[in-house]
Amino acid sequence: MTLALDAAAQDLLFREARTANTFSDEPVSDEQVQAIYDLVKFGPTAFNQQPLRIVLVRSEEGRARLVQHMADGNKAKTSTAPLVAILAADNEFHEELPSQLPHFPQAKDLFFSERPVRESSAALNAALQAAYFIIGVRAAGLAAGPMTGFDAEGLNKEFFGDGEHSVLTVVNIGKPGEEAWFPRGPRLEYDQVVTTV
Amino acid sequence: MTLALDAAAQDLLFREARTANTFSDEPVSDEQVQAIYDLVKFGPTAFNQQPLRIVLVRSEEGRARLVQHMADGNKAKTSTAPLVAILAADNEFHEELPSQLPHFPQAKDLFFSERPVRESSAALNAALQAAYFIIGVRAAGLAAGPMTGFDAEGLNKEFFGDGEHSVLTVVNIGKPGEEAWFPRGPRLEYDQVVTTV
User: Fold this and answer.
1) 3-class secondary structure, B91
2) Which of A34, A132, A197 sits opposite B55 (nearest CB)?
3) How far apart are CA A180 and CA A22, in angstroms?
4) Binning pLDDT at 50, 70 and 90, where does residue B1 land?
5) Which member of B3, B13, B87, B116 has the lowest number of beta carbons within 10 Å of its beta carbon?
6) C-alpha pair distances (Å), B178 with each of B11, B61, B72, B182
7) Nearest C-alpha of chain A: how many angstroms from B187?
8) Quick check: A168 and B124 CB within 8 A?
9) What confidence tens digit (pLDDT) does each residue in A26-84 have?
10) What are phi and psi of B131, to 5 degrees?
11) Is the Cβ pair A1, B32 closer than 8 Å?
12) For A141-156, what is the mean pLDDT?
């Protein structure tokens, strides 16, 4: 069984792509991030809600504000990656629904008038978009280093003072550096994951 | 700015890929699902936890058990798609950690001894894997129709009687049928999503 996607693309996105722990000095430009976004923005979300928001940390001051909230084991790589992106869910995404779902603008009030419903929907759909973004980083020929080891409440307050965003993951981005990877970890077998009824 | 991923692959996975609402009769084989899994299993998760579990609904009885829990607007397409996959998070994923994270088996007890922590981590990481799976379906030349309109508690009980799984999304899979798509919805502009500090 072969896939429609060519083998080189399979390798680039999945088979040879790895979570990088070190990076080279080569910078990552805004144009590269824009090209990534302009590809992965087409990934599907429920009601086309698109709750993902991205903060690119470029200034020295921003980097320091970020690193203080990272777990100790993530501080060194977060300090040295060419670019770091904070990926968060916008729990007030419904404000954009009338423009993003023009054939059904009532969805904003019919389905998303309650904050807990929005938070739950934003968490799932922004996570889908975070995965599309990681794939997009790889599509750009870059390595992604997604991390979840951080003080989430601290990051929410530090970068989203409005109380309306929930940080999901922080992603180091760049060309891999020396000894960038750990050995590839195992994967669950198909029969451990997939059952049929 | 061009991406490393070739344009045909960009189109296949994102730019021309669409959420299908109707499907042809052409079946989707177990071999196709295995090829999809064997590609997307390499997508990254925190601690290599791989919490995604997949139920393929193939029998008539299974289809009926599923459709009763779907929202009315999703019943027809869930009834007629060549294959339907239920994607769930395994909240007891930590049982597999010693085999899946062999260099750090203590992670199971150090980080994941508490159920609420596991649920939160499984929800995020299984959602990342759900997105990889959607991309994988497209990589196989098939259309995916992910849905979140269903009675989640009903599905959890119907297909995972152990109380240890949380259904995230149900995905219709197949070749697109007649009038398979709505018009492409808009997307948020780069400047609405990305900020820089």
Assistant:
1) coil
2) A197
3) 5
4) low
5) B116
6) 20, 26, 21, 11
7) 7
8) yes
9) 999 999 999 999 999 999 999 999 999 999 999 999 999 999 999 999 999 999 999 99
10) -65, -40
11) yes
12) 97
